[in-house]
Design goal:
This protein is of the alpha+beta class and about 80 residues long. The chain has five helices and three strands; from the N terminus they run H-E-H-H-H-H-E-E. The longest helix has 12 residues.
Amino acid sequence: DDLTDHYLGHHDSLAAWAEEFCDELGYTQLAGSDLPATIASYVTIDHEMLARDMEIDGEITSTQAEGGGVWVFRT
């Protein structure tokens, strides 16, 4: 049960997991929603850095999967 409670899935990369995470929570849409159109396209979420920081902070952990990609777990 602990494994399924913490397992966040298999992804191509940790950044790919972070992108899906942001999409599911609506952060991607919010990133530019209140900005003028002239600047909104320049605002992006650095998914690689977000995932790295979340792993450093101990919120998630990942391990390389055989055959490629990573398994991601909530800690």
